[in-house]
């Protein structure tokens, strides 16, 4: 790795035939579960919707209402192919894909972001934000773009952020905050912005992913120990006091790059021998994994599907019941840089936008209210059509034709 109301009209022919078949089977007493399962997954189109692009890598993204914020190494947004100055941060209207006037400037690369209250928090390798000294961590007003009061000096490289329970959590490959020694994790009070010195979180190697859910802070990365305990690569800390939550022990065999959750299931994007999307129970029990031939660097979920991106080119069509098993028969399917899986079973869904680039997709996010997902990264096209470094995909209002969940393999 380089370093988330549809108006009903006439039913489409494919779905209409499926419903007729289901009704016929019901009359005959045959099971209809397969048809119901397929309908339950809401897929997005295989072609991106119109949007601006960027002239450099997009490492991080987040939806906040109807706005999409992106960060990276770019210097310009590309509007109809023409450059518009946006130094490492930009905001788009998520409904239309159009560039918004919000334009704080940063003098270095942004690797991660998260929103809380009125602020967008960003971390990365930078020293100044909006002309003000902010070393590796900053808060920016979501509406005005004004630099917020949060001010600390981070030694190292922040690569993960999350907010919840009154705290802002920072992870990465970091050694000090304001001259105080830390081990790849730190926490700040959202009220006032002070370092939370009572937070005991440490990791013995790099932290790549942070997600707050309920009483847990999920932590993923390259580490072997979390808070000195043997919770390699994936674990959870209690948001109440920062201690290890021993009720979550996934025993993940490979490095964790990204995390997404739905009620009852925790999904992780893994590296390792090739790469994997893995699903776990709330106690860390293994459910399934789907193998790729390159790291899973980004992951999100929408409508019952899990979407994952990375630098892979092929995916195993059959999920595994083991965390380390390779693809049965080594029969992988061409699936460059992005994939959709059934969130319940791990089965490959027939959705293949066909992205490009060496490193592919680096960030993903979902907006359930808009029925959209967003992707950012090193790619420049989907299906041969120019989409430099950023794209949005919208749910299929009237079915996805041959690329719907009904064609899960």
TrEMBL record:
Gene3D superfamilies, per database record: 2.80.10.50, YVTN repeat-like/Quinoprotein amine dehydrogenase
SUPFAM superfamilies reported for this sequence: Quinoprotein alcohol dehydrogenase-like
Keyword Signal: yes
Keywords: Signal
Signal peptide start and end residues: 1-36
UniProt protein name: Uncharacterized protein
Species of the source: Actinoplanes digitatis
Native organism taxonomy: Bacteria, Bacillati, Actinomycetota, Actinomycetes, Micromonosporales
């Amino acid at each position: 790795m380089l370093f988330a109301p549809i108006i009903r009209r006439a039913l489409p022919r494919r779905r209409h035939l499926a419903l007729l078949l289901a009704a016929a089977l019901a009359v005959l007493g045959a099971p209809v579960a397969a048809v119901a399962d397929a309908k339950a997954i809401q897929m997005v189109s295989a072609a991106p919707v119109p949007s601006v692009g960027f002239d450099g890598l997009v490492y991080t993204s987040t939806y906040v209402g109807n706005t999409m914020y992106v960060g990276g190494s770019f210097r310009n947004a590309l509007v109809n192919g023409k450059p518009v100055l946006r130094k490492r941060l930009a905001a788009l209207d998520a409904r239309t894909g159009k560039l918004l006037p919000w334009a704080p400037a940063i003098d270095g690369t942004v690797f991660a972001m998260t929103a809380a209250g009125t602020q967008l928090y960003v971390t990365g390798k930078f020293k100044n934000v909006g002309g003000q000294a902010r070393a590796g961590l900053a808060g920016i007003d979501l509406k005005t773009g004004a630099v917020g009061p949060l001010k600390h000096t981070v030694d190292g490289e922040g690569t993960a952020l999350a907010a919840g329970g009154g705290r802002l959590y920072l992870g990465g490959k970091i050694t000090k905050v304001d001259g105080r020694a830390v081990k790849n994790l730190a926490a700040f009070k959202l009220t006032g912005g002070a370092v939370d010195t009572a937070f005991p979180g440490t990791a013995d190697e790099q932290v790549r992913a942070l997600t707050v859910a309920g009483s847990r802070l999920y932590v993923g990365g390259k580490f072997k120990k979390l808070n000195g305990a043997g919770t390699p690569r994936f674990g959870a800390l209690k948001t109440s006091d920062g201690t290890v939550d021993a009720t979550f022990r996934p025993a993940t065999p490979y490095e964790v790059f990204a995390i997404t959750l739905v009620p009852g299931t925790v999904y992780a994007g893994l590296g390792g021998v090739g790469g994997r999307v893995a699903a776990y129970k709330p106690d860390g029990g293994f459910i399934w994994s789907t193998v790729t031939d390159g790291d899973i660097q980004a992951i999100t979920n929408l409508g019952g599907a899990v979407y994952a991106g990375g630098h892979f080119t092929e995916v195993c069509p059959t999920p595994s019941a083991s965390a380390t098993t390779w693809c049965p028969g080594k029969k992988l399917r061409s699936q460059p840089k992005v994939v959709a899986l059934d969130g319940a079973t791990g089965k490959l869904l027939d959705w293949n936008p066909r992205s490009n680039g060496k490193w592919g997709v680096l960030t993903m996010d979902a907006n359930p209210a808009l029925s959209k997902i967003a992707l950012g990264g090193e790619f420049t096209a989907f299906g041969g059509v120019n989409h430099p470094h950023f794209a949005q995909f919208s749910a299929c209002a009237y079915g996805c034709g041959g690329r719907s969940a009904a064609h899960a393999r």
